[in-house]
User: Which sequence fits this backbone?
């Protein structure tokens, strides 16, 4: 354990799972334009719903058990996607009164609908049903040698069924719970590393958009690492680019915080677009991971071959280690090996699992 890790006070937004929507109460809606207001009032009148206008332009309608979803969905069918996003909404419990403070918390109606549909995510986070599968990263020159494991977030429903990770992250984004989910995934990776006795480095994914200030938002992550007695050198924090990075300086501040505490950093999905290539000179990662769409068929498609070979050559000159993701065929592996790729990751050798699978050595 390194004494360099110096976390301070934590982040309440990351650490506290938001409360689910109340079973009954009042829905407040603030339409963006007169047309939307007319549609809203027309719907209320058609359904015989009692409503009021406690503030100019803000409408209040009550709901009981299970009625909120129907209320929102029916209104959605009468407005455009743009109106849906621009209609601000708030749900309060039966005994809560609207205040100016509440008005500042109004959010797009689309987010309210997502919270209704994604109630299972609230429960999943509260019940701590997030865990990690581990995907081996092997040496290109000696694939029998596992260099590290990437930690991939997984979760189960109340019935014990696996939840689609893409759906999980999409609902988190729509409901404003990306902060909570990203933190839960980081902690699950550390917990799983200890549980399965992994003696190799682990790559822990993080989304820059879920970290306001690393000294606060990464408090529990740092504490978990210290409590697990893991050396910082054993952990690589990997930037995931599921969304465009809007603030490079903010990301650089996060990476510098990691480096100051002895961790290494990786840039994911290089080659997936222009952004990651442009980030290289500023971020100077220890590792870059080549996007699986670029790797797929790299041994047989000339355009992919030229692009990938240039990235590998550039990385070698910069002293940045390379990891090729999504390798599934002998041809891809042999091509990458011949071109000097440092590490390989893909189903050709193993699938993500907990505990991690033993690496298969392909013939040929």
Assistant:
């Amino acid at each position: 354990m390194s004494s360099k890790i110096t976390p301070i006070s934590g982040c309440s937004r990351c650490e506290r799972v938001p409360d689910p929507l109340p079973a009954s109460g009042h829905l407040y809606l603030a339409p963006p334009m007169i047309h939307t207001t007319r549609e809203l009032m027309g719907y209320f009148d058609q359904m015989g719903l009692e409503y009021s206008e406690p503030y100019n332009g803000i409408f209040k309608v009550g709901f009981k058990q299970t009625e909120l979803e129907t209320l929102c969905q029916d209104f959605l069918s009468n407005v455009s996607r743009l109106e849906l996003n621009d209609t601000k909404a708030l749900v309060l419990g039966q005994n809560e009164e609207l205040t100016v403070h509440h008005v500042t918390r109004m959010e797009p109606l689309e987010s309210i609908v997502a919270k209704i549909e994604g109630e299972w995510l609230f429960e999943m986070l509260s019940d701590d049903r997030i865990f990690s599968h581990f995907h081996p990263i092997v040496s290109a020159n000696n694939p029998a040698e596992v260099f590290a494991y990437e930690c991939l977030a997984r979760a189960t429903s109340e019935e014990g069924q696996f939840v689609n990770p893409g759906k999980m992250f999409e609902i988190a984004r729509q409901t404003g719970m990306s902060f909570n989910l990203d933190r839960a995934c980081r902690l699950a990776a550390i917990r799983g590393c200890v549980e399965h006795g992994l003696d190799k480095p682990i790559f822990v994914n993080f989304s820059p958009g879920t970290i306001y200030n690393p000294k606060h938002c990464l408090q529990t992550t740092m504490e978990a690492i210290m409590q697990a007695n893991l050396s910082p050198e054993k952990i690589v924090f990997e930037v995931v680019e599921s969304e465009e990075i809007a603030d490079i300086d903010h990301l650089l501040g996060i990476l510098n915080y990691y480096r100051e505490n002895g961790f290494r950093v990786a840039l994911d999905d290089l080659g997936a677009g222009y952004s990651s290539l442009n980030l290289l000179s500023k971020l100077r990662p220890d590792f870059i991971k080549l996007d699986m769409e670029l790797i797929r068929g790299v041994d047989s498609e000339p355009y992919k071959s030229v692009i990938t070979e240039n990235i590998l050559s550039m990385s070698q000159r910069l002293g940045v280690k390379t990891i090729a993701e999504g390798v599934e065929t002998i041809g891809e592996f042999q091509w990458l090996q011949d071109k000097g790729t440092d590490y390989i990751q893909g189903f050709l050798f193993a699938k993500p699992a907990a505990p991690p699978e033993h690496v298969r050595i392909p013939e040929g």
User: Anything to note?
Assistant: Residues 15-119 form a domain with the Alpha-Beta Plaits fold (CATH 3.30.70).
